[in-house]
Response regulator (Rhizobium anhuiense), 146 residues
Amino acid sequence: MATNVVRRWQRDDRMKQRVLIVEDEFLIALDLEATVEGMGMQVAGLANDCEQALRLAPLADIAFVDVNLADGPTGPEIGRRLAQEHGIAVVFMTGNPEIVADGVKGAVGVVQKPVMPSVVEQLVKYLAARRVGMFAVVPSQMTVFA
């Protein structure tokens, strides 16, 4: 019975994770937001540049970050800061994965765009489980940083 209580607590805690979407293409950001909310999870906010992302950081647990944003190729620096300064689980979603191929300190990994909603769901589940100490399978579309 205690195991069931722990699992239920972990599952409930996993679903309370808030997702920050750092993306300058508005339609892509809205699509990600709809997918996350469709899972019953909360979106902490949408940001299209460094300033907005860092302002929303205290509200987030997970972040999807594009590499090229409204203020230039600031995504890798944003991802590093979100992970290191705020403890956010960061995955880059980009059409240019080679830019972060060597990894970004603190970030979890990268997925190449376009990203299907089913992959977004897998990523959210993986990152949320990872944050609460649950076992989770790494989505096959994600390249994990060392």
